[in-house]
Amino acid sequence: MSREYWSWFGFWAEFVVLGLLAILGAYFASQGGGPGDYATGLILSLTAIALAFFRLKLRLDGAPAEWSRALFVDDMRNLVLTIAVFAVLALAGLFIAAATQGGSLYIAGVALFVASGLIVFLSLKNVFDNLDRRQR
């Protein structure tokens, strides 16, 4: 009984967190006065909403519930494309951060760089873990 409860709780907890991120993004979009505050808040809000719908679709389609299975690539061919795309996004984040003196647009640029780097490294780990599992 407790395993089903925690599974149900975990399913809804991720929607609560994504909903809070969507509300937080909308708040920053409406209250921000600095350059880029509106766009940064709106992107956070829309991304959280899109990710919530993506997770709900995967759950209703019967896909595995793990985040790594849904967000990261599994093979080398797709890893090359992932690295290329997220390296460009990381560089764009650095250029955005370098072009501003401070404030939310600076933080958004640094966050884009960090998130892109994390996605690349976690995708690398996922691909090599899958290769290791296949060899056993």
Mind explaining what this structure looks like?
By secondary structure, the chain is mostly helical. It folds into two domains: 1-66; 72-136. It is 85% helix and 0% strand. The protein contains five helices and no strands. Helix 1 runs antiparallel to helix 2 and helix 4 packs antiparallel against helix 5. The radius of gyration is 18 Å and the shape is flat. It starts with a helix and ends with a helix.
Outline the low-pLDDT stretches: none
Major beta sheet, specifics? Answer: none
Number of strands: 0
Helix-strand category: mainly alpha
Q: What gyration radius follows from the Cα positions, in whole Å?
A: 18 Å
Helix/strand order, N-terminal first:
HHHHH
Q: Note the overall shape.
A: flat
Proportion in helices? over 70%
The total domain count is 2
Distance between the termini: 34 Å
Q: What is the averaged pLDDT score?
A: 85
Tally of DSSP helical segments: 5
Strand content: under 5%
